[in-house]
Amino acid sequence: MHYLWIFICAALLNAVPARGADESFNLLIMGDSLSAGYGLNAADSFYSKLDKALKGKGYNNINVINFSRSGETTAGGVNKLQQALALNPDAVILELGINDALRDVPVDTIKDNLERLIKTFQNYHIPIMLVGMQAPLIKPAPYQQQFKNMYADLAKRYNLAFYPFFMDGVFKGMSLAALQMPNENVLADRIHPSAKGVDIMVRKMMPTVQKFINGFYRP
Hints:
Blueprint: H1 2-14, E1 25-30, H2 33-36, H3 46-56, E2 62-66, H4 74-79, H5 81-86, E3 91-94, H6 98-102, H7 107-123, E4 128-131, H8 141-157, E5 161-163, H9 176-179, H10 195-213
Parallel strand pairs: 1-2, 1-3, 3-4, 4-5
């Protein structure tokens, strides 16, 4: 019985308490240009449209905080951990890794950096939703597969909420030929989402975001 009581107390200490709708709640997005709104007005950025969508669903006291930077890497995220924590996040959406892939960073290194981010946030009892990406198609097939699997492996290992592909629905196919086709969902660079593309991203991700948030917030 003594050991059972110790176990129960430990579980309660590590649990994330539910937050009521009358309490302010900070949802931090730690990402790169895809979530920062590269090439867009602030109102058309992912973080702005996610904030608007959440409030439209009744999450009125959730503040979406943009901590995304164009060109950000996982190593950059690790270096900015204290800055992120200083913003007092109650939960984090973690969207990093694609810029590492563009720089030919080994997948093991990317994974190690993401693990450092995840472990640090979890040490502060901050829930994390991990957002995956796909490596550029010009990369060797083994690298592409390892990069894709990395996100799923981390989500499973650390029991994270998980959205497998941030740009899901934006492209009209995932082949080199398809990516070169005219597409109003992306900017002229054929990489970053347009305002219409961001709408698709927010709409498709919302069920996962809501399930994540509902674990500790009551609208």
